[in-house]
Amino acid sequence: MKPSEIHRGSIISLHRVGRTNAQRARQLHICKQTVSRWLQRHKDTRNLTDKPRTGRPPCTTSEQDQQIRIAVEKNPLTTSLRVIEHQNLWKPHLTEANIEKRLEYALEFCEKPAIFWENVVFLDEKTFYSTNRKATKVWRKNGTRYDGQHVVSDGRSGRIGAALFGWVYASGVGELTDIGRGRFTGVKYVKLLEDVFLPSVRLLNPYPSQFFLLQDNSPIHNAEVVKNWFKAHPEINVLPLPPRSPDLNQFEHVWAAMEKQASDPLPLGSLPNRNAVIQKALAPWEHQRGRDAGQALCLKLTELMPRRLNSVIEAGGAYTKY
């Protein structure tokens, strides 16, 4: 943590009365390296103010900074993601080019009738874990490591992950399958499309011949080997989402519903392994298959696509509430 101007002045004052670096660090609750750095800065420049900086401007306002400080003081064990979500602080930065592409996409598809979106298959990938808790980070000041509010009582280790590939459509969930170990590549994606996706989607009555497929703008989805595979299957009309458009990807809501059901850690006493993680993720997916609740969720999300697109238009290509 960068010391305030008051702390910097205190470093110099304590130096003048003969305190050691270790004593100054303990008294001010900062590390010795910070004390040494500001002493050297004062010696070289006689100045304790911050140097001018270049680069990207701050992404938060002073009011938001204050909200963040209050949030972590109330709950030092919170995560940065939760702070961001609760304070509504973060979405991927949109460039002018991103905004333009989002707006073009929305204008192109906003007039499509609901029946059009009922003929669209949505694809996505997600990694599930053996526990929903990573190594816990603590927001604290230097010198307060062992304060009671900063100690986690039940640490966990051995977190195991498994990446899964799935697809949904207006009538419900399709297939969910293991991507496999190692890095996900375009070659792996083509194999999933060929061996899992295409055979299973062809079994559905709504898609006997041509159909539409919507996927996000992942670099893997745009790999040359993937483009060539789609060229060899002209019955599939690809609708790639514009860059940085999670608010136009209805699959995010499906994953969220699954993750909520699969978020509990594996039972204590079991030995977590990759297969157990896969089975844990498959359980809520299979629970939705053929059930009214699963069909209603997918149909609702499909019907919302025109509304999402119109929201992008109303926002001038910027982010929406979705």
UniProtKB/TrEMBL annotation:
<feature type="region of interest" description="Disordered">
    <location>
        <begin position="42"/>
        <end position="65"/>
    </location>
</feature>
<feature type="domain" description="Tc1-like transposase DDE">
    <location>
        <begin position="120"/>
        <end position="264"/>
    </location>
</feature>
<dbReference type="InterPro" id="IPR038717">
    <property type="entry name" value="Tc1-like_DDE_dom"/>
</dbReference>
<dbReference type="GO" id="GO:0005634">
    <property type="term" value="C:nucleus"/>
</dbReference>
<feature type="compositionally biased region" description="Basic and acidic residues">
    <location>
        <begin position="42"/>
        <end position="53"/>
    </location>
</feature>
<protein>
    <recommendedName>
        <fullName>Tc1-like transposase DDE domain-containing protein</fullName>
    </recommendedName>
</protein>
<dbReference type="GO" id="GO:0003676">
    <property type="term" value="F:nucleic acid binding"/>
</dbReference>
<dbReference type="InterPro" id="IPR052338">
    <property type="entry name" value="Transposase_5"/>
</dbReference>
<dbReference type="InterPro" id="IPR009057">
    <property type="entry name" value="Homeodomain-like_sf"/>
</dbReference>
<dbReference type="InterPro" id="IPR036397">
    <property type="entry name" value="RNaseH_sf"/>
</dbReference>
<dbReference type="Pfam" id="PF13358">
    <property type="entry name" value="DDE_3"/>
</dbReference>
